[in-house]
């Protein structure tokens, strides 16, 4: 029998970045807020402290901070006629778990979308004509413009204490910054991180080619910093254990270091861990939600938690899963093109070239998650799509996150995978390799989507979500274009050896090799309920007291890492809630 | 090898703090553990493997990362101990993995692991098949073959030329991955004995603080490796 708990004003599903921000802002409104987090509680002490956290095997290889597929996973297939099979252990992407979510083990690469990306369909049509959009591509405008989001990007960057260099301040191009970014109202809150040797070499080579290198915007603090919630960050010490780890040094922006310490002191905020929401419960009117049902793993019972406002703040994939299970919004059907929930799932197109130099020592163990020098010369706003024959773009970076020997050691092409040859190459090249990577967009397509799996179930007996996804020629052309550009710069650096890894014609999605935890879409935002799950304020079209945060809102993936826009969108939604919805709860569009 | 002049070593710093007390306790217990394990690898009593299986693991590790040439081998760094402990633990049991059926072990490898068996079960079921194949091909078990023939047999296994049921097709990938893990993981897991693999490639282990070194380009980092227990190589 389900227990029913006393009603709250607000229930938050998931206590990562967006849950923490929404929790804080709703608590500041004086509302009674409860956050439900299905994973464990986590904090810098004891979970991320030195030296226990510097354990490559436990955290980077055995995924100590990640979602356990045993508790939660999905099935994957390449095409609509295939049978999907479970993602039984982690590989291609690593969803977070527990308080802080993926916000504890990210690298901290914090970008803004380009203005063109937020109105991509209109941009393409205006500049190149609708004819260049492939028949099965479903790109669309976000329903919010860069100009509207700018103040919220600014606030989010200040919350995280981003280290970087502005390239466009109120329309004026700044030396040393990214000249292709949208206009910023302010400089970054902290100066750029120091460059490592590889970043410096790449930047030098890029400059010689007439390109425009700038420091990658980093949520790894370059100096001591205090944010709007009086949370303090300490300067990053380049420990080399950033991605896949919690920060031992209070340097990487995370919900813990930027929000939660302050949020936990709010008397009208509380949170429960090991509390997995099973369903958002619709009210009898069919137009609102009345609360959520969750499984309380502490007591082993189902609990109904009534609430006036339901904020869906889980990882993007789980947001979509929960909407499907709760029957909020019509599930997408690729055969008819009708329905919206699960529509426009997208991934991230990445590639890279390794450079091996006998005479250069890189000390790769000195690194941090977002350090690096990037170029945006081949970004979405800089490419003639009609001429190149694809829609999309990438940013390109020389830099590295660390030199962990199990996962980050690589040997030149032609090295045996084992035996004396491997051992000797490992010793000879560990300190002599750098890489240049591309991080690129992925468009949305009619047959790339999320729905419920007909066969496999989770521990609660609910259907797993099913992902149908594969690479498309448009995006492969894009990454091949980047390969050419990167190899050109790389060759100019005269390495002793070079090796490239990019998707090529015929490449199928490989679920086993880590590529990116940038799974986006499936509950996309927009201005038309026929092609979006939530409106431009992230409010459900179907239940107006349900708001869905996170990268599930992206109608197609941008060329950048998703945390910047999902943070900006969270603050954008906060303003809509605070200034409009809370005063008069109703559909805002 | 001395610490940087003018800068207290992390270990020295920690000794003077509350964290130091906790760390020192960890270090003592880890040292005690290391001392108990010091008998030669041949006398190690595996907790998961049978003696026959362990003889195979020893022989296979010795070819995957052999002793000859630059750098320590897998036996010198006690990699087989690491693998034994991993299979006895959560990894061997697939404790974190989704292991509900139906299973389709012969699925497209791009869709990932689809065997109903745990990694520990894969080792247990595949070792005898491979040993039998070595007998059939070469008239001897794997451990008794000469090094060159062992390498050829492992290559056949790697390339899928040893007939294994689809449930076992990840066997070679497991051994190779686990061997490299044991070579480079923190010594507390039983391999990377004496941090020799870290020292060999030049990874300083759990030092975890490099602020002064970020901008010193193309220089040799001078400090030896430390492990999580606070020992120095």
Overall mean confidence score, pLDDT of chain B? 89
Please tell me what the overall shape of chain B is: globular
**What is the number of strand segments of chain B?**
0
Unreliable stretches covering 5 or more consecutive residues of chain A = none
Question: Termini of chain B, distance in Å?
Answer: 9 Å
> Which structural class fits the helix and strand makeup of chain A?
alpha/beta
Which class of secondary structure composition applies to the elements of chain B?
mainly alpha
Radius of gyration of chain A: 23 Å
Q: Sheet bearing the most strands of chain A, described?
A: 8 strands, mixed
Low-confidence stretches of chain B: 1-35
Q: Percent helix among the residues of chain B?
A: 40-55%
Count of separate structural domains of chain B:
2
Please indicate the count of domains of chain A.
Answer: 1
Supply the number of helical segments of chain A. Answer: 14
CATH class of chain A: Alpha Beta
Task: Write structural notes for this entry.
The complex is a heterodimer of chains A (589) and B (233). Chain A is of the alpha/beta class and 589 residues long. Chain A has a single domain, classed as FAD/NAD(P)-binding domain. Chain A contains 14 helices and 22 strands. In chain A, strands 1, 2, 3, 11, 12, 13, 14 and 22 form an eight-stranded mixed β-sheet that branches. In chain A, strands 8-16-17-18-15-21 form a six-stranded antiparallel β-sheet. In chain A, a hairpin with a 7-residue loop joins strand 4 (74-77) and strand 5 (85-86). Chain A is globular and about 70 Å long. The two termini of chain A are 38 Å apart. By secondary structure, chain B is mostly helical. Chain B has two domains: 6-38 and 203-233, no CATH class; 48-201, no CATH class. Helix content of chain B is 44%, strand content 0%. Chain B is built from eight helices and no strands. The longest helix of chain B has 20 residues, at 18-37.
């Amino acid at each position: 029998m389900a227990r029913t708990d006393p009603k709250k004003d607000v229930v938050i599903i998931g206590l990562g970045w967006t849950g923490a921000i929404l929790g804080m802002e709703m608590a500041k409104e004086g509302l009674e807020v409860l956050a439900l987090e299905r994973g464990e509680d986590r904090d810098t002490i004891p979970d991320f402290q030195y030296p226990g956290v510097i354990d490559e095997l436990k955290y980077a290889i055995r995924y100590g901070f990640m979602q356990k597929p045993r508790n939660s996973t999905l099935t994957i297939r390449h095409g609509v006629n295939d049978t999907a099979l479970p993602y039984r252990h982690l590989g291609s992407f690593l969803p977070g778990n527990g308080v802080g979510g993926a916000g504890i083990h990210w690298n901290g690469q914090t970008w803004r979308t380009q203005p063109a990306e937020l109105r991509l369909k209109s941009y393409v049509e205006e500049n190149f004509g609708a004819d260049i959009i492939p028949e099965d591509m479903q790109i669309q405008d976000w329903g919010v413009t860069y100009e509207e989001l700018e103040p919220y990007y600014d606030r989010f960057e200040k919350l995280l204490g981003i280290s970087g260099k502005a390239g466009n301040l109120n329309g004026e191009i700044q030396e040393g910054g990214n000249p292709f970014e949208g206009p910023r109202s302010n400089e970054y809150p902290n100066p750029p991180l120091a460059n490592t040797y590889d970043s410096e070499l790449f930047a030098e080579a890029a400059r010689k080619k007439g390109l425009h290198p700038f420091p990658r915007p980093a949520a790894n603090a370059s100096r001591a910093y205090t944010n709007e919630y009086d949370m303090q960050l300490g300067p990053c010490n380049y420990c080399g254990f950033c991605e896949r780890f919690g920060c031992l040094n209070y340097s990487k922006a995370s919900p813990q270091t930027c929000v939660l310490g302050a949020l936990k002191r709010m008397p009208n905020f509380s949170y429960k861990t090991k509390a997995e929401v099973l369903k958002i419960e619709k009210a009898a009117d069919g137009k609102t939600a009345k609360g959520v049902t969750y499984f309380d793993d502490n007591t082993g019972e189902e609990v109904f938690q009534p609430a006036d406002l339901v904020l869906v703040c889980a990882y993007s994939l789980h947001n979509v899963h929960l909407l499907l299970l709760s029957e909020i919004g019509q599930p997408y059907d690729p055969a008819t093109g009708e329905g919206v929930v699960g529509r426009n799932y997208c991934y991230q197109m990445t590639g890279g070239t390794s450079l091996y130099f006998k005479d250069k020592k890189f000390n790769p163990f000195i690194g941090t998650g977002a350090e690096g020098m990037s170029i945006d010369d081949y970004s979405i706003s800089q490419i003639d799509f009609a001429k190149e024959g694809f829609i999309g773009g990438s940013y390109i970076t020389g830099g590295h996150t660390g030199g962990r020997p199990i996962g980050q050691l690589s040997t030149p092409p032609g090295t045996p995978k084992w035996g004396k040859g491997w051992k000797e190459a490992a010793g000879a090249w560990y300190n002599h390799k750098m890489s240049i990577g591309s991080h690129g967009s992925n468009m949305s397509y009619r047959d790339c989507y999320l729905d419920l799996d007909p066969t496999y179930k989770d521990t609660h007996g609910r259907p797993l979500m099913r992902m149908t996804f594969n690479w498309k020629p448009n995006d492969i052309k894009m990454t091949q274009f980047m390969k050419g550009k990167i190899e050109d710069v790389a060759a100019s650096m005269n390495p002793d050896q070079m090796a490239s890894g990019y998707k090529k014609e015929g490449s199928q999605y490989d679920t086993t090799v880590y590529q990116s935890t940038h799974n986006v879409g499936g509950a996309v935002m927009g201005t038309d309920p026929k092609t979006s799950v939530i409106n431009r304020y992230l409010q459900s079209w179907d239940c107006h007291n349900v708001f869905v945060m996170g990268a599930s809102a992206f109608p197609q993936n941008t060329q950048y890492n998703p945390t910047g826009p999902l943070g900006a969108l969270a603050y954008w939604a906060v303003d809509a809630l605070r200034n409009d919805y809370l005063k008069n709860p109703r559909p805002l569009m | 090898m001395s610490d940087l002049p003018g800068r207290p070593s992390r270990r020295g710093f920690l000794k003077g703090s509350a964290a130091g007390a906790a760390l020192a306790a960890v270090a003592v217990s880890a040292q005690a553990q290391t001392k108990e394990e010091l008998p030669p690898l041949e006398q190690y009593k595996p907790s998961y493997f049978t003696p026959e299986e362990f003889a195979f693991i020893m022989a296979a590790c010795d070819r995957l990362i052999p002793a000859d040439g630059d750098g320590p081998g897998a036996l010198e760094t006690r990699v087989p101990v690491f693998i034994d402990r991993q299979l006895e633990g959560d990894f061997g049991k697939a404790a974190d993995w989704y292991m509900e059926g139906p299973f389709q072990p012969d699925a497209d490898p791009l869709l990932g692991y689809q065997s109903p068996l745990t990694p520990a079960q894969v080792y247990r079921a595949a070792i005898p098949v491979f040993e039998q194949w070595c007998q059939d091909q070469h008239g001897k078990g794997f451990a008794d073959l000469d090094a060159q023939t062992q390498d050829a047999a492992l290559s056949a296994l790697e390339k899928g030329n040893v007939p294994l049921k689809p449930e076992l097709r990840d066997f070679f990938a497991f051994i190779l991955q686990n061997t490299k893990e044991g070579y480079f993981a923190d010594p507390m897991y039983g391999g990377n004995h004496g941090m020799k693999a870290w020292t060999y490639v030049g990874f300083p282990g759990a030092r975890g603080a490099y602020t002064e070194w970020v901008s010193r380009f193309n220089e040799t980092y001078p400090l030896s490796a430390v492990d999580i227990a606070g020992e120095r190589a």
